[in-house]
Design goal:
3 strands, 12% strand
C-alpha cells in the first residue's frame, strides 16, 4: 500500500477494490477474484458483494447477462457511478 505522506491513512482493500471497479463498466466475478489474487486480498469477492449491498454495484439479470456476455456461469456486476463517487 502506498501513502502520499505520513499523515495519509492507507486505503482498505474494499476502498482499493472500489477504485479499480470505477475504471470498469461491467465486471465478472472471475475478474474480481483475479484482482484479489494480484493484490493479496482474499476478501475481494466478499467486498464486491458488500459494495453491491451498498448500491455501488448492480448484479445483472440472467437475461441481460446472456445478451451481453453469452451463457456464462458466473455473476456479472454493473458499476454504478454517482457524483458522490
Amino acid at each position: 500500500m502506498q501513502t502520499l505522506d505520513l499523515f495519509t491513512k492507507p486505503l482498505t482493500d474494499k476502498e482499493r477494490l472500489w477504485e479499480w471497479l470505477k475504471t470498469k463498466e461491467f465486471v465478472k466475478t472471475s475478474e474480481i477474484l483475479f484482482w484479489g489474487c494480484n493484490n493479496y486480498s482474499n476478501r475481494a469477492d466478499r467486498n464486491a458483494r458488500l459494495l453491491a449491498q451498498e448500491g455501488k454495484l448492480e448484479r445483472l439479470s440472467k437475461d441481460e447477462k446472456i445478451l451481453r456476455f453469452g451463457n456464462i456461469g458466473e455473476e456479472v456486476y454493473k458499476v454504478i457511478l454517482t457524483n458522490q463517487g
